[in-house]
Amino acid sequence: PVAMDTGKGAGPSDTGDKDRDLQVLFQELCQLQAKQRKLKRQVVKYKLFEDYLIKVLEKIPQGSSQGEEPAEALVEAMVEHYRKLFTVSQDIQKHLEAFSRMNQAVHRSLESLEEGHRALIPSLKIQLCQLQKRCHLQQEQWQQLEHDVTSQKDTGSSEKQLLSYMQMAINSMAQRCCPSAHDVPRGLFSKLDLIQEFILDKMETVRFISLLRGPRACWSEDNPKDQGLRRYPRPFRKHSKSQDSIPRSPFPGPQTSEDSSLF
């Protein structure tokens, strides 16, 4: 019974120790899992470098001499390879510096071109303004010429109309001065001569009538007054015309009053 009591008293203490051990083991397990996750992240992070080193090792040639150790041959091959890479990088650096210098020269030339362009802009603007003024002046001159041509056309048409009216008036007067419509001349100066002779005849007739109604005077060819009746200028005559073309009578006929009413 005493042993049984002793066993019963030691049971709870063993259970507590086991719980503590389990807790410690669980903590260690959590720490190990955390370390495992960290290592996995590092492996993933450095996987690229690992692949690169593997490719470099694959491309490095093996040592040719049998007496050399593999490690030394590997190191020498790596040194030679990186020496070549360094030489290539130096050449690339030189080309890059040359390209940079060329780029700087191009930039300087571009800046000079921009400065020249900025300097040319004012003069080009002045030339543009002058050309615009000349263009406007030319347009105004063309408009004035068009106006002058239009006015000349209008004046020419009015002059033609006036000439046609004058010609119609001369034709009408010539028809009235001629006893027969078939005897009317066709030329303009001939018609003017006909009208002038008709007017002179009428003037002579009127003068003769006035002399008959007034005091009688002696008529003679030597009398300067009688000779002055037929000394009228005839500027429109272009050809000789017979005296019989227009009948003259010293005394007024029955048509005298009708003809004098025309003028």
UniProtKB/TrEMBL annotation:
Biased composition (Basic residues): 231-240
Entry-linked PANTHER family: COILED-COIL DOMAIN-CONTAINING PROTEIN 42 HOMOLOG, COILED-COIL DOMAIN-CONTAINING PROTEIN 42 LIKE-2-LIKE-RELATED
Region (Disordered): 222-263
Name of this chain's protein: Coiled-coil domain containing 197
Residue spans of biased composition, Polar residues class: 254-263
Matches recorded under InterPro entries: CFAP_domain-containing
Organism expressing this protein natively: Sus scrofa (Pig)
